[in-house]
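From the pipeline queue, job 12 of 40. The input is one protein chain; the requested action is below.

Action: predict structure.
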Amino acid sequence: MQPKILSDINVMREAYAPLQFTPLALEHRPTVVTAAAAHYLNRCPQTLRGWACMENGPLRPVRVHGRLAWKTEDIRRLLAGSAI
């Protein structure tokens, strides 16, 4: 059995570990959460939330159960340089 201190350290490592996202080319879901969309677009999640609030960004989110979701196809088009 591990001492309590080591288990606490492991919990802290997991809490502060960088998030892992599926590569966009392999993403099959129709929408992704804000954190994933921000990762793909190389922006902060708060930037995307601002776009949603002010309705002035290059993407428009949809609401899924009251939460922001970003269309995967729109993200792909934006990164390819196409107009959305």
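Job complete. Residues 4-16 form the longest helix (13 residues).
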